[in-house]
Amino acid sequence: MSKELTDAIVGMDEAGAMRLVQAMLDAGADPSDVLEEAKAAMTVLGDKFECEEVFIPELIMGGEIMKGIADELKPRIKGEASGVSRGTVVLGTVAGDIHDIGKDVVVLMLDVNGYDVHDLGIDVPIEKFVAAIDELEPQVIGLSGLLTLAFDSMKATVEGIAAAGKRDQVRIMIGGSPVDEQVCAYTGADGWGRDAAAALRMAAEWTGGAA
Amino acid sequence: MTQTSEQLYAEREQRFNDVVALKKPDRVPVMPLYVHNFPTLIKGIPDKVAGYDHELRWQSTKEATLRFGWNFAPTNDVLASDFFASFGCKQMMWAGEEGGLADDAPHQWVEDEYVKAGELADFVADPNGFTFSKIFPRMGSRLEGLGQIPLPPLYWFSNAYYLQVLGNMLGIPPLNEALRAFLAMADAQAKTNAANGKYLQEMKDLGYPPTWGAALMPAFDVVSDTFRSLRGSTLDMFRQPDTLLKAVDVMQEATIGLLHAAYAVTGIPRQFIPMHKGAGGFMSDEQFARFYWPTFKQLIEASIEAGITPMPLFEGDYTPRLEFLAELPPGKVAAHFDRIDRKRFKEVCGDVLCFWGNVPSSLLVTGTPQQVRDDVKELIDLFGETGLILDGPGGIPDQARPENVEALAEAVEEYGRL
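YS: structure for the whole thing
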């Protein structure tokens, strides 16, 4: 793994990272390998986020650098990129709530950590979550919300998934600033978290991997 | 002996002022920083109705204040739906608009990059012109004409000859539509202001001071929340930090000016400062020190200098920022907390800031009165002697159970008469 590329991405040196990618390609490196190395740097960022060494800005900027690198490399990669999914996660902000900052950070964190992430968006009705379970067969469902009306929407969504006979197929996490143990018990979810690191830990536990 | 409304007003204001000054009050006040739909929802009135019926929501707020024993008359911070409808607002969603939110959902901001990365420098170079011709059209469908017809700078119309041109231009259909939208905004605001004014007068007659007179966002939040979005302002922190800071400075100058203007108009010596992007997790301490703290601290100091008690709502978790908060002027700030390590706060800021808040939403919405009383007891044990105001994490949550809100005042009877 190129320590220089990792350092550039983790150090938020966007121009430096792009120069290194170009230099690696010029030297004959396999574009797929370069992409994997860049992804590995994002995992380092994720670890630092969990340890509170970096915060949301570095995740967002790291994701942006990663996107730039992927845009550069993907046209040069023949066939589908390899990489084994660590599991499938379906996320959305529950009905009545359109806040998406927290959800988007969770999506980014899970994505860079190798999960197959499906973002259903905001103000997501129960039936859309149920349909996604049918279609995508996720191991994990993530329900996000910032408003207190989301407590009832989360509860109704958990109950709706159960009523559709699919509760045993998925583990359900809830997240958002006002969420805590009390709200988790109220909604009938399997776990709760206030940040992307908590979401990652739950996803790892529930899909049988390490965070 | 029955107290007059003037005496009650003075007593309630003194109770609040004592807490802010870190003096022991006669009792711990219960004071929502604001309310949204709680007063109307407990009467079975959906947000779809409350957003348009201003008399109903302000009168419901009056009833709630009296029923739940609040110390001040809270601001009903439900936004006026007819105001947003008046100009075809594209930045907000609400119940009752076509294609809008569910009947019980509150107004919600649609965060987006309303100012693009490459435009931030244009805003800094010409804040008024950019706002008029670029931002206004993006805010409302009825204001789009302002971006379609190029107008000369305002100073060009500074004589009666040239003013004829303005008259001509305002007759062009897209500009005429925008002009009519501005008038419709004024009509809508007049309705909500009339209901608000009636409420404030009635509450004053009953001896209740208004909670605050104006809401001012910190300059960084204005730029991040309303111009660039979290993603945009984050990328600016890395890609164009100097331009971002210049935009924050432009907004800061206007904010400080508005602080004085709002005080002059309302006469209410308290102003609310809602805070968003400075919370723990949203930035490192270094980023906070560079981008957020300087203008925020300046806003607090300017408020105090003007004779205003600033009421910052530290939304999110501010435990990681306690060392910054300890730099604020002691006994001058009504600091409201959402989530924070209470004991750490007491250690670091206990002799600087009062503690306003922070019974969790989870307890008020899904808990029992006993759970609420237990939480209030913990707050009173920690802060009762040194400055405590009871509230939810940021006002009373819309979905709070009435019996849990009653438990706040009951707990004060039990534990909080000092």
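YS: worth flagging: The radius of gyration of chain B is 22 Å.
IM: good catch. Also The beta strands of chain B are 34-35, 75-76, 92-93, 108-109, 214-215, 270-275, 309-317, 336-339, 355-358, 388-391.
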